Structure formats: C-alpha cells, structure tokens
Amino acid sequence: MTVRIGVIGTGAIGRDHARRINQVLSGGTITALSDVNRASAEAVKADIAPDATVFATGEELIASDQVNAVLVTSWGATHEQYVLAAIAAGKPCFCEKPLATTAEGARRIVDAEVAHGKRLVQVGFMRRYDEGYVALKAALAQTGAPIMVHAAHRNPTVPEAYTTPMAIHDTLIHEIDVFRWLLDDDYVSARVTFPRSCARTHAKLRDPQIVTLTTAKGVVINTEIFVNCHYGYDIQCEVVGEDGVASLPEPMAIRMRLNASLQNPILTDWKDRFVASYDVELQDFLKAAALGTASGPTSWDGYMAAVASDACVQAQEAEGESVAIPCPDRPALYA
Ligand code: NAI
Ligand code: ISE
C-alpha cells in the first residue's frame, strides 16, 4: 500500500521531508500540502509534489479522503491542534519536535491517543535513528553502568527571533529525549548556569548556557548549548561509565593534509548532520502508517520531553538553582 501523506507546514523541514518521501523513500506519496503561507505550499507542489492538492487549512487537509497520514512540520506552537485533529480522524501522524510547546499541551495529546486506544503518533526525535547514537547505546553494554554524560549542542548561528527559552524547547529538547532513550532513565532535576554571553548574541538570548540534568538512577548530565558558536554544527556526547568511556562518533569526513595542516571539515547544517536519520525515521513512519498505526518515539516521549523542557525553562529563570522534574505514571499504551 502507498500511504497518501498530507504535509502541514512546508518550511525548511516540511519541504525536506516532502522531498525524501517523494524522491528517496518507498511506500509513501505526498498528496496534500498546507501552509499559512500558501505560496510556500505552492512552491513545494511545483518543485516536489506536482500531483498534490494545496489546502487552505491544516484541518481541511486532515479531513480530506486524499490523505491517510499526516506530517506536522509547522511551527511548534501549532503542533498540538493538528496532532489532536489527526487523532480525532484516526490518521497516523508524524509530528516534528516539540510535540507541543507545553507539558499540558503534550498531555492532551497523550490523553487523546490513550482514549483512541492505539498508537497513531510518532514524534520527530530523529537522533534515536542516528547510526552514531545507536552505536553509542550498544557500546554502553561494555563501558558499564553510566555515571556521567558530557554533551554539547552547538549551532553556528540561529535566526534573530531565537530567544533564551528556545535554547531549551527548540534545541536542548533533542538531548532531553535522546538521553532518556540512551540511558533508559528519567529526569529528577535540572539546573542552568550561564557563562558570560558571547559577543555574537543579542539582548534576548543568553548564549551559551550549561544545563545540568540529574536522572532517577543518579546520572548527572552536563550539556552545553551554544547556538552562536560560529564555527559549525557540532553535536558532542561522551558517556562515562563504571568501566570506561564511550563517545558519539564524528560524522564521516575526509581528512586532508593540506597547506601545512591536518584538516577535517565540520558540517554547518542540521539537515546534513542528521540526513540519514531523517530518512530512517520517516521510512519507519511510512511502514507503520501503512498498517494504520505508528512506531518510534511516542507521544509519551514527547510529553516527558515537554515536562523536562518546562522544568529547564524554570531553571533558566532560577539561574543556578535546582528545579525538580516530575515523573508521572506511564499509561499502559506506552509500556
Ligand atoms: P520554518 O519556519 O522553516 O517552517 C515552518 C512553516 O510552518 C512555515 O512555512 C510557516 O509558514 C508554517 N506554519 C506556521 N504556522 C502554521 C500553521 N498554523 N499552519 C500551517 N503552517 C504553518 O521552520 P522549520 O525549521 O521547518 O521548523 C518546523 C518544525 O520542525 C519546528 O517545530 C522545528 O522545531 C522542527 N524542526 C526539527 C528539526 C529536527 O532536527 N528534527 C530541525 C528543524 C526544525
Ligand atoms: C532546530 O529546530 C533543530 O531541531 C536542530 O536540530 C537544532 O540543532 C537547532 O538548534 C534547532 O533550532
């Protein structure tokens, strides 16, 4: 069966996911597009999905019988309404991170999916599909029980509208999810400290910042978020265990001996860093959607990430103070 996909939000990642579904992956085709900026949806139709219908609203797209599954790739604050509409229509839905911009919003999605009684939602936490993180998780069997994690999430630059809390719910949210998965653990507290801000930032963005998360098993995770690092897109992670240390591999790159130096290029764009992971996560979505369900990161994972994100934003405001992170009971649907 070819899954007929409707895409809501055809900006950077919506366009890229539409491309991979129509040009790279198997089992899906883009039949519908919608964006509040209609010209953006029309441009994706012209460039990638000539047979797709452009709908005026996401709700009309979800209701259409041209669509059996939905990709929500609009701005984070609009995800909840579309995911809830997809669940109400009984259609599998891939939602980019964040599932919702507040824990309450993500909980409404969990409750709706539980009431539906079957998984319909996959959250776009693509790092769980990254070869490097998968290998790192496997290596933890040899390095022994984790004690500490040292990590960094560095972007060369971010748009002018990016503010201090976005470092958590737009950027750190990837680490928040991937460390829960990597360590098979949940968070109990968060603390944020700020070094002096770098010269390239602006008044509404304290950058960089250091987030310390403590897990239920007592692992302490330090993550640097530095979104004006200038030199490249760089994701680092080192897990210190009882018997050894395991590190996330660097992306494949050609090492050159050139001009009296040993050089190793560094990527500059998230699209390139995780290109293979996006392919694998969406192939997984298409496979499950063909069966009328979803696999991969769940609404519960999206909710738990939102709970931790909210606590981290509070910890930013309480600079240096520890903020507790609740750990609610997991519904049986996500066991
Ligand atoms: P973008 O700004 O390039 O595109 C978002 C699009 O959504 C725009 O075309 C905008 O007009 C449209 N839009 C906004 N509100 C809408 C609404 N109510 N209904 C329909 N369309 C609407 O943003 P980008 O970078 O593509 O990000 C989109 C989402 O994807 C965000 O949630 C972001 O966090 C996530 N993302 C995930 C990444 C990952 O690595 N997994 C990487 C980049 C983005
Ligand atoms: C962006 O939305 C992403 O998800 C990227 O993976 C992340 O590195 C960046 O900081 C976010 O703004």
Number of helices: 10
| H/E series | EHEHEHEHEHEHEHEEEEEEEHHHE
Overall form: globular
Q: Count of DSSP E strands? A: 15
Number of domains: 2
**CATH C-level name of the largest domain:** Alpha Beta
Q: What is the structural class?
A: alpha/beta
Alpha-carbon Rg, integer: 20 Å
Quickly give the CATH architecture of the largest domain. 2-Layer Sandwich
Helix content: 25-40%
**What's the CATH topology name of the largest domain?**
Dihydrodipicolinate Reductase, domain 2
Give the N-terminus to C-terminus distance in angstroms: 29 Å
Q: Quick check: average pLDDT?
A: 98
* Arrangement of strands in the largest sheet: 12-11-7-10-9-8-15
* Beta fraction: 15-25%
Question: What do we call the CATH homologous superfamily of the largest domain?
Answer: Dihydrodipicolinate Reductase, domain 2
Biggest beta-sheet profile: 7 strands, mixed
InterPro entries: Gfo-Idh-MocA_inositol_DH, Gfo/Idh/MocA-like_OxRdtase_C, Gfo/Idh/MocA-like_OxRdtase_N, MI/DCI_dehydrogenase, NAD(P)-bd_dom_sf
Catalytic activity: myo-inositol + NAD(+) = scyllo-inosose + NADH + H(+)
Function: Involved in the oxidation of myo-inositol (MI) to 2-keto-myo-inositol (2KMI or 2-inosose).
Keywords: NAD, Oxidoreductase
What this model shows, in words?
- It holds the Pfam family GFO_IDH_MocA_C.
- By secondary structure, the chain is of the alpha/beta class.
- It folds into 2 domains: 3-127 and 276-297, NAD(P)-binding Rossmann-like Domain (Rossmann fold); 131-268 and 305-334, Dihydrodipicolinate Reductase, domain 2, CATH 3.30.360.
- It has helices at residues 12-23, 38-47, 58-63, 79-88, 103-116, 131-143, 166-183, 270-273, 275-289, 299-317, and strands at residues 3-8, 28-34, 53-55, 69-72, 93-95, 121-123, 146-154, 187-193, 209-215, 220-226, 234-241, 245-247, 256-258, 261-263, 323-324.
- The protein has a 7-stranded mixed beta sheet, covered by helices on one side. Strands 3-2-1-4-5-6 form a 6-stranded parallel beta sheet, with helices on both faces.
- Helix 4 packs parallel to helix 5 (103-116) and helix 5 (103-116) runs antiparallel to helix 10 (299-317).
- The longest helix is centred in the last third of the chain and has 19 residues, at 299-317.
- The model has no long low-confidence stretch (mean pLDDT 98).
- The protein binds 1,4-dihydronicotinamide adenine dinucleotide (NAI) and (2R,3S,4s,5R,6S)-2,3,4,5,6-pentahydroxycyclohexanone.
- 1,4-dihydronicotinamide adenine dinucleotide binds next to helix 1.
